[in-house]
Amino acid sequence: MSGATGDPDLAAGVRRRWQQGVAWARDYAWIARAQVAASLRRQSATPTSGAGAPVLLLPGIYETWPVMGTLARALHAAGHPVHTVPALGLNHRPLEASAQHAAAQLTELDLRGVVLVAHSKGGLIGKLLLTHPEVGPRVAGLVAVNTPFAGSVYARWFPARSVRALSPRDPHVLALARDVAAHARIWSVHARFDPHVPGGSELAGAVNVRLPLDGHFRLLDDPRLHAAVVEAVARLAAPGQGPAGT
Q1: What are phi and psi of 203, to 5 degrees?
Q2: In this structure, is residue 7 part of a structural domain?
Q3: Listed range (51-55, 78-82, 221-225, 235-239) with the worst mean pLDDT
Q4: Beta-carbon count within 10 A of 124 CB
Q5: How many domains, the chain?
Q6: For position 117, which CATH number holds?
Q7: What is the pLDDT of residue 245?
Q8: Are 126 and 136 a contacting pair, CB within 8 Å?
Q9: pLDDT at residue 200 tops 70
Q10: pLDDT, tens digit (0-9, with 9 covering 90-100), for 85-121
């Protein structure tokens, strides 16, 4: 009789599903702790000193920038001044409204040659900024972490309307997916297994970096993700060294 012990492929599949289930649970535990910590402590300003290219953080839906705190510190340690968009709040507004808030912050701070570093929904906001008629020329590129560029099928069944707006069927998501002009200025850094974006974050025409990590949130705290994002920022900020030249 054949079973998991007698069929190597079946055994490997069962083991991988178990690993993904554990990763999913750890992912939720991590974001729960991170969100509680962010809500309990007073938000300090990001470190805005440094001679490197400025960075603007764009967190995901229902996230504030401290969820990306260790990544922000890694970017600052690499010499980049790090900025945020306080007007995003919990980032539950429609994409266009969120992009307008980010555009206003870029203009107010007079940032130029800025690299957008985003997580999840923040990457969709960042993509809108790349083609924004006023601030687009100020942006050197976008580093998006686990962004649902084609939407997420799970969003369709979520009770909150702001999350359902990230469905692959949403007209704004569909329109943004069809706009490929900005892909040459995007680095998509993503996990090998993302429980929130089952379709993956692969983006045609962009630089795609698939990390040997599992999860949607927890990799924000991983040094391997930090190293990949720091490298991407450096490449995008260097003239002639962005995705088109790789």
Answers
A1: -130, 115
A2: no
A3: 235-239
A4: 27
A5: 1
A6: 3.40.50.1820
A7: 37
A8: no
A9: yes
A10: 999 999 999 999 999 999 999 999 999 999 999 999 9
Single pTM value for the model: 0.88
Which pLDDT belongs to residue 1?
Answer: 42
Strands 114-119 and 186-193: unpaired
Strands 114-119 and 82-83: unpaired
Q: Residue 4, Cβ neighbours under 10 Å: how many?
A: 13
pLDDT of residue 159: 77
Cα–Cα distance, 8 to 24 (Å, whole number): 24
* pLDDT above 70 for 81: yes
Which positions ≥6 away from 100 have C-beta within 8 Å? none
Query: In this model, does residue 242 exceed pLDDT 50?
Result: no
Question: The tokens of 84 are what?
Answer: 């945020």
Residue of 80, 88, 36, 24 lying closest to 59 (CA atoms): 88
User: Are 59 and 89 a contacting pair, CB within 8 Å?
Assistant: no
Tell me which residue range forms the domain holding 146.
Answer: 12-237
**Would you say residue 44 lies in a domain?**
yes
